[in-house]
Amino acid sequence: MLSIKIAWRNLFRHRGKSMVIGAILFLGAFLLTLGNSVISGMEKGLDKSVVGGFTGDVILISKEQQDPVVLLNMGGKPVKDILRFDTLRPKLESAGLFKNILPVGKGFALALNEQDGVPGFAFLLGVNFRQWKEMFPESMRIMQGNYPDSTGLLMSTGGLDQLYSTMGIWFQPKGFPIDTALLGKDAKEAYPHLTMQNDIVFMGFNEANSTSDIRLPLDGISKFKALNKIWGHFLFVDIASYRRCMGYFSEADQSASLSATQKSLLASDNDNLDALFGTEPPTPAALGPDQTIIAPKQILTTTLPEEAGAYQLVLTRFLPSVDRSQGLDSLQRFLETSGIPLQAVTWQKASGVVGSMTIIIKIALNVFVFLLFFVAIIIIVNTLSMAAMERTSEIGMMRAVGAQKSFITKMFLLETGFLSVVFGGLGILIGVATVLVVRWWGLTTENDILQLLYGGDTFKPLFGIADLILTVIQLTLVTFLASIYPVRVAKSITPLDAISRD
Amino acid sequence: MNIVEINGLTKDYPLDKTIVHALRGVDLKIAQGSLMSIIGPSGSGKTTLLNMIGCVDKATAGTVKIGGVDISGLSDRQITDLRLHKVGFIFQTFNLIPVLNTLENVEFPLLLMGKLSNAQIRAKAKKLLDAVGLGDYFNHRPGELSGGQRQRVAIARALVTEPSIVLADEPTANLDSVTGASILNLMQSMNKELGTTFIFSTHDPDVLQYARSIVKIHDGRIVEA
Description:
The complex is a heterodimer of chains A (502) and B (225).
Chain A: H1 2-13, H2 15-55, E1 58-62, H3 85-93, E2 98-112, E3 120-127, H4 129-135, E4 140-145, E5 153-156, H5 157-167, E6 170-171, H6 185-190, E7 196-197, E8 199-204, E9 213-224, H7 228-231, E10 234-238, H8 239-246, H9 251-255, H10 260-267, H11 284-287, H12 296-300, E11 313-318, H13 324-338, E12 342-345, H14 347-350, H15 353-390, H16 392-400, H17 405-441, H18 448-454, H19 465-491, H20 495-501
Parallel strand pairs in A: 3-10, 5-9, 6-7
Antiparallel strand pairs in A: 1-11, 1-12, 2-3, 2-8, 2-11, 4-9, 5-10, 8-9
Helix pairs in contact in A: 1-17, 2-15, 2-17, 2-19, 15-19, 16-20, 17-19
Chain B: E1 2-15, E2 18-31, E3 35-39, H1 46-53, E4 61-66, E5 69-70, H2 76-86, E6 87-90, H3 102-113, H4 118-131, H5 147-159, E7 165-169, H6 177-194, E8 197-202, H7 205-208, E9 213-218, E10 221-224
Parallel strand pairs in B: 3-8, 3-9, 6-7, 7-8
Antiparallel strand pairs in B: 1-2, 1-4, 4-5, 9-10
């Protein structure tokens, strides 16, 4: 009580120094609040935009896949196939971790320019549209056209912009007029003289160089609720069209065996092989007695379940009760023990540069907070040490009349503590008010990097209970660390120092 | 009974590259209830001697016993505790805690001791302030008091713990002669009433008439006792 009384009154007696330290603590607490809010908002925003909008909690890839960057690996190697997912799904479901499991095909494709211009590039995402909607119901909204049912092509405004920039063609769903609000900057400048198409020809890329061109009409234009530009790199097609484009064949085709005649034909040294490629389809007689002609349509038709075909990624969402990082550990252990030929990666790893960028932004913010921390400590240490030395007579006299060093320590810690509570508390309050104003203001951006910092299109810093606790802990730590040296100075003052000053 | 026993006390201070011999083998015994004055010219070592008796400085050699306890082997905590219980200080510049009022300043050592209830502490502090003539100044801060009044508060604070010894280093140095005399009268009467040992240093010959014993010190040696 005595030390509290002295400490409290000392703050008013040394108003100037109290104000200096208080101002630093205020500013520190204010900036810590903002910093923590930005980090928290970014994490929450990215969680919503990325995990809840595109990737899920964990991405499963083939065990043979060495490079974990499987999402935004522009120009990278194709991702290893996941085969017979129909047999893997029940095993995965038995782990009791998942709310949703969505296998998708992902490959790099060339968008052919039928106007004799430069072709475009895009990642094709082969999905089951119904399953996608089930897993990411809030991720996007249809701006024009229709959400494909079983087959079709869906492009985001971000994707359309990118293709327009390279190809100079604006793709538009058939039967819908151009909505200028959806046009990107370049397309807007060219409007109304836009080169327009309702469908697009894709040529897939794969390691076997066995892809085929497919023409797909554009069903709808979508817009991701966040990170529209980044997710715009992906064009959504139904999984069957995707497989066709990427040169995958059905299980039945893979198991087809060659007859003796076919083998002899392939092994033939006959110079007249060109005769086989006439303008008319070959007759059974030309091929041999044991052959029948199979129409190409039938070759591509699979009688096996959709999930028996090839995929590259499996997007998963954990049950609400499963913590993401613990879930990832459990999943990895489960995959290992159950012999499922898959491996789990986080979206940050899978997204490569984009994922790294978010980590870099987060580190930069944390470094900023740490520097703030450090500078605040240095200034407070300096001011408090000077205050301690200026109070040599007072402290020495207290020691002379019987105050222990612990009393002096308590008095100093209380003084700094009061300042921290009053000014730091005020800093936090003003910081929270600023966060609320910024959230209300709703700053938006189209810039990719800023979108990562914002955790979406809109800057929404967040200050929850956890952030409050974190900020209070940081502030307490600053106060405590800043008090250590001045307390040592004060404790080292002896009664003799006070008497010598007389 | 001797409250202070000093044997072969020397104290050297380093000063730049030289050593100052502040005390050169002092032997002194001070009986309980004494009213002693230590006199000598400036730099003679009287303040150093008072500091040694007050346990605020450490001897280079020799021993200082307070109430039979050799202070050389005590820890900082024990010495601080000894000062709290056995020694009262009256400083030359009326060192009071600026943020506490008169009453709280007097209560300060008792609160540190923590032996009495708040009511008992308050009653005791009030009684002493009444005794030093400051019954109407309980709520005044040191800054609102005159030099003499502040020194009276310091005397009340020094006496409130009922110490064995009260040390006063030139207690009247910063006071006018009338106020100085009243302070010395107060110390004299407290010495008589409470039996507390008062040891004060001075180089003012007028102050000497209040002392019952005088120790004369010169160049760090007691030349007359």
